[in-house]
């Protein structure tokens, strides 16, 4: 037992519950409670919104969120093997941890929180991380039910989320994230921090929704960015040919010879509104 919280060490929890990490579920666990504490503190204060954790696994980050003062954590876990381990944490913090045994891709956040604000904090499974982020960024209701997202991604994905125009990583994900949120990388986490270690470095990214993103129809913005970045080395008059090409670009004052990666988020919004 650790003196700090009276729960067994995470290695013992993994052993006791037979939680051998499964690659198919993106299971790379964090067993260092100093690190999980540091991640949880990025989302402070934790007592004014429900904290939603996706993929708690054996519960290292869950414990940290509770220790850092979360009034209520809702933890969504797809792997049924983890539920009993999480119930031990719930028993230790009566009324503060709700465990949802489900696939996070199918969860309606607003329904889950009864429309109350949530903060999402997660060491995401890499195989579904980008899709989850896209789901949260494309919420029909805006501002969305989430107040902040504090998420672990592979560093390369984190760089795509926060990339600025004119940089190599700038693409569809950057435009969508930049349109609807302010996103930044907080710190990197080395592979050796995980059990088992993944092949690449990870990064913690934080996104805060913009109150009033520039008005644009999401489906049109997605269509324009998909076409533009689908042929990112080509001039826009070529890559956007099927959407109006040169005429479309000149109608909104964008030089048809430019390439996708040079356009700001506002310029993509202008194009989407003209399509
Ligand atoms: N939070 C734990 C930690 O930091 O040690 C575990 C993180 S591990 C990278 C990802 C977790 O997400 C695993 O526990 C895995 O079972 C779970 N998971 C994978 N796919 C999921 C899904 N679609 N919905 C909910 N949980 C999922």
UniProtKB/TrEMBL annotation:
S-adenosyl-L-methionine binds at residues 28, 30, 55, 77, 103, 123. Residues 35-211 form the Ribosomal RNA adenine methylase transferase N-terminal domain. GO terms for molecular function: 16S rRNA (adenine(1518)-N(6)/adenine(1519)-N(6))-dimethyltransferase activity; RNA binding. Its EC number is 2.1.1.182. Signal peptide: none annotated. It comes from the Bacteria. PROSITE patterns: RRNA_A_DIMETH (PS01131), SAM_RNA_A_N6_MT (PS51689). One of its GO terms (cellular component) is cytosol. Gene3D superfamilies: Ribosomal RNA adenine dimethylase-like, domain 2, Vaccinia Virus protein VP39. It is found in: Cytoplasm. It catalyses: adenosine(1518)/adenosine(1519) in 16S rRNA + 4 S-adenosyl-L-methionine = N(6)-dimethyladenosine(1518)/N(6)-dimethyladenosine(1519) in 16S rRNA + 4 S-adenosyl-L-homocysteine + 4 H(+). Keywords: Cytoplasm, Methyltransferase, RNA-binding, rRNA processing, S-adenosyl-L-methionine, Transferase. Belongs to the class I-like SAM-binding methyltransferase superfamily. rRNA adenine N(6)-methyltransferase family. RsmA subfamily. NCBIfam families: ksgA (TIGR00755). Specifically dimethylates two adjacent adenosines (A1518 and A1519) in the loop of a conserved hairpin near the 3'-end of 16S rRNA in the 30S particle. May play a critical role in biogenesis of 30S subunits. This is Ribosomal RNA small subunit methyltransferase A.
């Amino acid at each position: 037992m650790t003196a700090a919280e009276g729960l067994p060490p995470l290695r013992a929890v993994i052993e006791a519950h037979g939680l051998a990490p499964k690659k198919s579920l993106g299971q790379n666990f964090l067993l260092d409670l100093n690190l999980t504490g540091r991640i949880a503190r990025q989302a402070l204060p934790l007592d004014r919104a429900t904290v939603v954790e996706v993929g708690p696994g054996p519960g290292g980050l869950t414990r940290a969120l509770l220790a850092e003062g979360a009034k209520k954590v809702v933890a969504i876990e797809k792997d049924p093997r983890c539920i009993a381990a999480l119930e031990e944490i719930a028993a230790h913090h009566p009324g503060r941890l709700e465990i949802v045994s489900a696939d996070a891709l199918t969860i309606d956040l607003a329904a889950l929180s009864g429309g109350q604000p949530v903060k999402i904090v997660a060491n995401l499974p890499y195989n579904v991380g980008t899709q989850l982020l896209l789901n949260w960024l494309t919420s029909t209701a805006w501002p969305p039910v989430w107040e902040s997202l504090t998420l672990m991604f592979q560093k390369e994905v984190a760089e795509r989320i926060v990339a600025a125009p004119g940089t190599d990583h700038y693409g569809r994900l950057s435009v969508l994230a930049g349109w609807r949120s302010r996103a930044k990388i907080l710190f990197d986490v080395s592979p050796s921090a995980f059990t088992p270690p993944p092949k690449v470095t990870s990064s913690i990214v934080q996104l805060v929704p913009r109150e009033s993103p520039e008005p644009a129809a999401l489906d049109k913005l997605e269509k324009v960015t998909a076409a533009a970045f689908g042929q990112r080395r080509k001039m826009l008059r070529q890559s956007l040919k099927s959407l109006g090409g040169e005429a479309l670009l000149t109608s909104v004052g964008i030089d048809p010879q430019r390439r996708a990666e040079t356009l700001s988020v506002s310029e993509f919004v202008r194009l989407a509104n003209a399509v």
